[in-house]
Amino acid sequence: MIRFDRDSQQENLNIILQQWSSVKERLQHGYELKNKEVHSYMLEAISLYNKLLVEASGTDDFDKIDLNKYEVLPLNGVERYEFIVMHPSHYAAYRQLNELFEETKKKIARLRIQNK
Questions:
Q1: Which of 25, 67, 84, 88 sees the fewest Cβ atoms within 10 Å?
Q2: How far is CA 92 from CA 31, 39, 45, 81, in A?
Q3: Number of domain units in the chain
Q4: In a domain, 3, yes or no
Q5: Burial class of residue 60, CB neighbours in 10 A (0-12, 13-18, 19+)
Q6: Under DSSP, is residue 33 helix (H, G, I), strand (E, B) or coil?
């Protein structure tokens, strides 16, 4: 298992979450206007989620093969992540990614408290 790194810098995690917030706004706007740019925004958002997992776990690289080993990954995270990667242009993938960010953020907070 790739454990949560309680020494991970909260500041770095916050930067990633702020970047997600910015991309999320562009995605919402893009889906409202049926903009073709959403595909590239989703790829950027997926990359941010990968960075969040790496930063929270204190690892050097993202391990897509052993995704289920990340302690911070929420329930059904692997299946949801695979759906997102396979269908990045779908609105449902955006909704799932948004939920993954929210649930991962909560899990990081819970693990941080438990490990004090």
A1: 25
A2: 11, 13, 14, 12
A3: 1
A4: no
A5: exposed
A6: coil
